[in-house]
Design brief:
The complex is a heterodimer.
Chain A lengths: L3 E14 L2 E14 L3 E5 L6 H8 L7 E6 L2 E2 L5 H11 E4 L11 H10 L5 H14 L15 H13 L5 E5 L7 H16 L3 E6 L2 H5 L3 E6 L2 E6 L2
Parallel strand pairs in A: 3-8, 3-9, 6-7, 7-8
Antiparallel strand pairs in A: 1-2, 1-4, 4-5, 9-10
Chain B lengths: L1 H13 L1 H35 L7 E6 L14 H10 L3 E16 L2 E10 L3 H5 L3 E4 L4 H6 L3 E4 L1 H7 L9 E6 L2 E11 L12 E5 H8 L7 E6 L5 H16 L5 E5 H44 L1 H9 L4 H37 L8 H28 L2 H6 L2
Parallel strand pairs in B: 3-8, 5-7
Antiparallel strand pairs in B: 1-9, 1-10, 2-3, 2-6, 2-9, 4-7, 5-8, 6-7
Helix pairs in contact in B: 1-11, 2-9, 2-11, 2-12, 9-11, 9-12, 11-12
Classes of the chains: A alpha/beta, B alpha+beta.
């Protein structure tokens, strides 16, 4: 049985910025088993955002193999990538990225809408996801009426509502105070206990220290992969 | 789909001023399509109403310009009637009429009226209805009976509370007084052509007997075998008279049908021109929509990035933005139709024309505005669909 959910093999990624070639990822290889809890660390410009985009199927490699949920993204078109992203990955962003004109409930229902799920069923599942985050009495509010921690919990509800294999969080505590941040991390750990792979991208060493596996990246190369 | 619709409506409401401004082109375009079609329809309807439809097969001939040359003028006598009937094809009947200015009196009431001396069958030919009494019979005409048929307003003026039929009125023409027995009252005219309501009719036999022996007609009315033939018959009469007199202006020959056709041709040209203007304003409106959609897509890059991160495929994004532009143009179309109908109703009321709306034109205009939404929204929507999610997410 294949229990690998992410596999990177000799992955390269090049950008051209103002006629200058930038090697964002340089021969990166690693794999992640289902149910792992991983922190990807590195300073800004190290390539960790690029790596996150690869895992999140937002971007394709210039060379090498990226397999997400057993599927090679290098050969996929936009539509196939969107499909894979929708079913396999749940995103949590530092700035929450909730749509301000929609209610909390509508925000959480959005990924299910892209699965063409029945409206009532989407609603039922979104409500369940929000209840898990303790936000049942905030469903009719708009994101602007919530605190930072509440917003991030909405974002986590939105990421988990599709029951994806992978939760990908980009600096999820970056905009929160330390207390709220700890609570959010606690939520990720609980989600991970349910069997979901959680990947947290951060430059906060404390978060890394707390994690069973750290992947450190510098200048597009993995310089460390393992436990502290 | 449904959620996209709701979301699009919300966005429309949030950017109300901007959206409505960008709609103006569409509103004006659609409204002008409605106004143009409605006005030309109303005008045509009025014209048709005023030409009694039964009179469309009639060609009217009256004398034209005088000429110094001998024989150049035409006389509408009995010889001319015979020659005309024998020479021109497709004539059903020829009616001669003479006009008189007359003053009518009954007791101490007097009114001025157009009096026309007509022959047997005149009312049937025009389809004029006799509301009370009867038309002249053949012998009334031949023997020149002093019987009169009066228009409805004349009847109202002279016989307020009395029964006109069988009553006697006095007619004064050129200082000669005659007494006439009222034998019929015309039904009031249905449309704007109410000249008959102020007219009276006497047998032409009376005119020949008492006013002028063997009179030449002041107007010749030629009824054709069918409405379709009337234009051709009018042309043939014209050439017949030109040949007879050597003067192409000897008579005025006019057919209602030809006038109607000419009118329709002119109004068709005008409509076509105005439709061109409407098309241009719709095009400008479309460009306005495209502009606003490009702005919208640029402004909402981040939203597009988020939606893509959540798994929206390019097609889903394209559909969403296409829906927004169609919503804008549909609203523009509806407003345009409302304004268009309002303006045409107003214009029709001011010009005292009958008001007619072409439902087909409303549908066409509406379809156009939806089409414009799709055509001009497609490029911005595709632009949104093609956005790179990574780039879109990092825009501020």
């Amino acid at each position: 049985m294949n229990d690998i959910c992410i596999r990177m093999e000799n992955v390269y990624k090049e950008y051209t910025v103002a006629d200058v070639k930038v090697q964002a990822l340089n021969n990166v290889s690693f794999s992640v088993k289902k149910g792992e809890y991983i922190t990807i660390m590195g300073p800004s410009g190290s390539g960790k955002s690029t790596l996150m985009n690869m895992i999140g199927c937002l971007d394709k490699p210039s060379g090498g193999i990226v397999e997400i949920g057993g599927k090679n993204t290098a050969t996929m078109n936009e539509k196939e990538l969107a499909f894979l992203r929708n079913r396999t990955v749940g995103f949590v962003f530092q700035q929450y990225f909730l749509l301000p004109s929609m209610t909390v409930l509508e925000n959480v229902m959005l990924p299910l809408r892209y699965q063409n799920l029945d409206r009532n069923e989407s609603k039922r599942r979104a409500i369940a996801a929000l209840e898990k985050m303790g936000l049942q009495d905030r469903m009719k509010h708009t994101p602007n009426e919530l605190s930072g921690g509440q917003k991030q919990r909405v974002a986590i509800a939105r990421a988990t509502v599709t029951e994806p294999q992978i939760i990908l969080a980009d600096e999820p505590t970056g905009a929160l105070d330390s207390e709220t941040g700890r609570n959010v991390l606690e939520l990720f750990k609980q989600i991970n206990k349910g069997g979901t792979t959680v990947i947290i991208v951060t430059h906060d060493a404390n978060i890394g220290a707390d994690s069973p596996r750290q992947i450190c990246i510098l200048d597009g190369k993995i310089i460390k992969d393992g436990k502290d | 789909m449904f959620d996209d619709l709701i979301f699009a409506l919300k966005n429309f409401r949030r950017n109300k001023v901007r959206s409505i401004l960008s709609l103006l082109g569409i509103i004006i375009g659609v409204a002008s399509v409605i106004v143009i079609t409605s006005l030309s329809q109303s005008a045509t309807k009025s014209i048709k109403d005023s030409y009694n439809s039964a009179s469309l097969d009639i060609v009217r001939v009256s004398s034209g310009f005088m000429s110094r040359r001998r024989n150049a003028a035409i006389t509408f006598d009995e010889t001319f009637r015979q020659d005309l009937f024998n020479s021109v094809k497709d004539i059903k009947q020829i009616q001669y009429t003479n006009n008189m200015n007359a003053t009518l009196a009954k007791d101490d009431l007097t009114v001025n009226a157009n009096a026309t001396a007509v022959e047997y069958g005149y009312f049937d030919m025009y389809g004029y209805k006799i509301e009370k009494g009867t038309a002249f019979n053949v012998s009334d005409n031949v023997t020149g009976q002093q019987k009169i048929i009066i228009g409805s307003k004349i009847a109202d003026a002279l016989f307020e509370n009395q029964e006109p039929i069988g009553n006697v009125i006095t007619l004064v023409s050129n200082n000669v007084t005659f007494s006439f027995e009222v034998c019929g009252v015309l039904a009031p005219a249905v449309a704007s052509n109410d000249a008959n309501d102020n007219s009276v009719f006497v047998p032409r036999g009376f005119y020949a007997k008492k006013i002028m022996p063997s009179p030449a007609a002041s107007a010749v009315l030629v009824q054709c075998v069918s409405q379709e033939k009337s234009v051709q018959v009018a042309d043939n009469i014209k050439s017949f008279i030109t040949e007879l007199t050597g003067n192409q202006y000897a008579a005025n020959v006019s057919s209602m049908q030809a006038m109607l056709e000419q009118y329709e041709e002119v109004s068709g040209t005008v409509s076509l021109m105005l439709s061109g203007i409407a098309a241009i304003s719709l095009l400008v409106g479309g460009i306005g929509i495209m502009n606003i959609m490009i702005v919208t897509v640029t402004e909402r890059k981040k939203e597009i990035g988020i939606r893509k991160a959540l798994g929206a495929s390019p097609n889903v994004i394209r559909l969403q933005f296409l829906m927004e532009s169609v919503i804008i143009t549909v609203l523009g179309g509806i407003l345009g139709i409302i304004f268009g109908i309002g303006i045409s109703a107003l214009v029709a009321a001011v010009m005292e024309q009958s008001f007619a709306i072409q439902v087909g034109a409303c549908f066409v205009a509406f379809g156009f505005s939806v089409g414009i939404g799709i055509i001009f929204g497609f490029s911005p929507a595709s632009q949104a669909a093609k956005l790179n999610p990574v780039e879109a997410l990092t825009t501020e």
